[in-house]
Amino acid sequence: MFLSNAWLKITTANENGGLNAVYFYKMGGLCFKLSANFTVESNTISAVQPYAMSATLLKTGCPDCLVFFGKHTIGGSTYTTLQLMSRRSMVTNAELDEFKKQAECLNLYSPAFLEPEKGLCSDDLTQEIGTTDVTNVMNGMASEAFEKFNTIINSENGVQTLIKIISSGIDTLKNN
After folding, report:
1. Are the beta carbons of 23 and 34 closer than 8 angstroms?
2. Amino acid 134: pLDDT
3. 102 touches 94 (CB < 8 A)
4. Mind listing the UniProt keywords for this protein, alphabetically (predicted)?
5. Cβ atoms < 10 Å from Cβ of 126
6. Whose CA is closest to 58, among 83, 39, 36?
């Protein structure tokens, strides 16, 4: 897993049933920002860019958590995800156990957890050295780029190859 931690800032959009979301990711010690717009209908959020996705809100016993069961279409493939989000940086063991059982019931892989102790990126981009806003890059990516990503991920050593590619890019950013 090459993502250390992430957080999400959600605000209501001007249009009815819309949300504005800004994701802040930390990878390889660098911060990345990605903005997206969602529509909300019933218990489901959806987006078209930077890729097609929909996620359904699931029930949880965690008082300040959201659990989303999502489908993300990248290139020609659809990926299923389960995300646990909390206002707290750490949730209880009971809350983690409940989340693990949800993943098991949905026939998903055992969950991976991020590392909040490595420090979150600030939403004030002027305070972060090396923060990159990838919104325009992701929104402008041609389907061929997503197909290449899909090919790498699904190859025999796909995840290791992707980590090498990202690591070399991060090293380049750090050295510039």
Report:
1. yes
2. 65
3. no
4. Glycoprotein, Secreted, Signal
5. 7
6. 83
Over the chain (176 residues), the average pLDDT of each successive run of 10 is 79 83 82 85 84 89 94 80 89 95 93 81 65 61 57 66 59 46
- Distant-in-sequence, close-in-space partners of 22: CB < 8 Å, separation ≥ 6: 8, 9, 33, 34, 35, 36, 123
Nearest to 10 by CA among 80, 73, 94, 66: 66
- H or E stretch covering 168: helix 158-175
Q: Which two tokens stand for residue 126?
A: 């002027």
Q: What is the Cα–Cα distance from 143 to 114, expressed in whole angstroms?
A: 29
How far is the C-alpha of 155 from the C-alpha of 143, rounded, in Å? Answer: 18
Please give the single-letter amino acid code of residue 154: N
pLDDT at position 103 is: 95
> Residue 52: its pLDDT value, please?
78
Q: Are 21 and 34 in contact (CB under 8 A)?
A: no
Q: Which helix (H) or strand (E) holds 103?
A: helix 93-105
Could you tell me which residues are beta bridge partners of residue 40?
45
Amino acid sitting at position 65 = C
Q: Which of 44, 36, 31 is nearest to 11 (CA)?
A: 36
For 3-141, give the CATH class. mainly beta
Count of other CB atoms within 10 angstroms of residue 76: 10
What pLDDT is recorded for position 116?
75
